[in-house]
Design goal:
Order of helices and strands: EHEHEHEEH
CATH topology: Rossmann fold
Number of strands: 5
Oligomer: single chain
Shape: globular
Structural class: alpha/beta
Length: 131
């Protein structure tokens, strides 16, 4: 079975390394996704969530003087699948996010797109959340 396409899927990107953020955004666009961001800090990502909810998110854990953990928690609470792409070991994630998808840096763009397709497929098989 082929993983679903990212065509028309919105993906929030939160990554403080400009060049890596640009590479991730470009790979996602080539895969047909609509990129929200990329954002270099949590404040920018959180502000974008006031106007739109992404279908998926790619988050770096360490954003210099801050982390993406609170953004991840907010997205998780809204049912948005998260992929942490980080130089830290998966054990650096707090227990409530330990089961989130994880991809170590350096990021392989083919693996990133493939994992997001898998996450999109998993989301499509889940029942809709009701308030």
């Amino acid at each position: 079975m082929t993983a679903p396409s990212l065509e028309g899927c919105s993906v929030l990107v939160l990554e403080d390394d400009f060049y890596l953020a640009d590479d991730i955004a470009e790979a996602l666009r080539r895969a047909g996704a609509r990129v929200l961001g990329p954002f270099a800090n949590a404040a920018g990502a959180l502000a974008s969530l006031r106007g739109a909810r992404p279908d998926l998110a790619v988050l770096d854990v360490n954003l210099g003087a801050e982390t993406s953990i609170e953004v991840g928690r907010g997205l998780r609470g809204d049912g948005v699948p998260i992929l942490f792409a980080t130089g830290y070991d998966a054990s650096a994630l707090p227990p409530d996010l330990a089961d989130a998808a994880y991809l170590p840096k350096p990021v392989n763009m083919t693996a990133l797109v493939s994992r997001l397709r898998d996450l999109r497929g998993e989301r499509q098989t889940l029942p809709l959340r009701t308030p």
